[in-house]
Amino acid sequence: MSNVTKQTHSEKEKPMSFIALVIWTGMVGGIFWSSMGYVAYVFNFLEFSPRIILEPWAIGNWKNSWLGTVISIVAIGFISTIVAFAYYVTLRKFKTIYIGMGVGIALFLCVYVILNPLFPGMAPFLELKRDTIITSACLYVLYGVFVGYTISYEESEVQLQKLKASKGHGGKTSENEG
Q: Which of 74 and 11 is assigned the larger pLDDT?
């Protein structure tokens, strides 16, 4: 590929804004990890599926069908964007995996202990099976790490680019200069 083609190709690519990255990270994280929760439900690691989120608001038997599952997973993806924005606003400067793990644990406790009464299909926390608690906690921790580390990594990259630009490098790395 010639330099002209490379230059034209790179000029067409606009980097994704940080806010767009936060939205996509939240949406993908929510959809992916709630889908993993559904898989865990299918294999009897969880006592309930992601459809439990529809119980307080949806009327009808449709919520127990495949449509209810899809709508639940997408709804969790939208809720996850709110979590991702909260992480972006409060914790994006921390570059450690442990912050994401802590966020996952905090979300787990919030849903399973504090919000538990909202979901009639969910037994009280102390009455849940050990498999459900362990699997759910692991899924929440993995979700927190995914969202947290993605946002924190991007923040550190943005700061690195600003530092390079302020030192007169113009944002170029040694790989691009050659």
A: 74
